[in-house]
Here is the input.
Amino acid sequence: MNNSTKIIIIGSLLGTLGIAGLAKAISTNQPQLPIAIMPQYHSSTQMIINQDKNVEVNEEKEKLDAVNDADTEVNDDKLPTSLSQVGEYGESVYDMAKANDWTKATANINLLENALKSLHTEIKGENKPELAQLNSKIAALTQAVTTKNRISAMHKANQVTLIAANITKEFKPKVPVEVTLLDYYGRELEIWSATGNTSNLKTTASEMHRTWNAVRPSILARGGTAQVQKFDGLVASVEAAKSSKDSARFATSVLDEVDNLEKVFK
Here is the structure.
């Protein structure tokens, strides 16, 4: 049968049977071939899977946030573990309150309270006045976090780090307590800059200078010439700051540079 004849027959069949009928008629005269069913790729399903993976990654990241700061700390076997934890968790609460992340702040409060309980056992009743201060300050900090009072929580959390730093003195830590205090003063600059308290900013700048003078020789003795030169400039800038905005900017630099001072003692 030639092509023109085929076209005429198919045209007539279409008119009589319609497309569906024609397909059925053709199928009855053709050998049945196996139909390959291709797997369907559902983009929406894959999106859900990807989202689930992202959630798992984010949750794992959140679990690590509470101890992120510890990664840059100098491991010091001279200090009771719980004492180091009190300082670290106190700083973490500060950071979370500063960021208005009250869920993580609460999580770190729980860790802080557990560390305090261990500290009472680990130092066996020593430093009783300081332990009493910690009890009181952490209770007040818990209240500030519960009420989501940002500045109050930041201030009380920083006070916790101060008390912990003072307790470390008798254990003669690898990192001099003065370096830890410089970290404390950097956070104080942030707090008083946020509130515009120029009087406290001046007091903090003066205390920072005094503390820096006390620890500066030991950093030079360890070869930290570059770190000393940089921190000399920062201290001078903090004292010369003319506004809260300037103090806040220098506070960030101070906190960053303290990490480099700590590394000198590794």
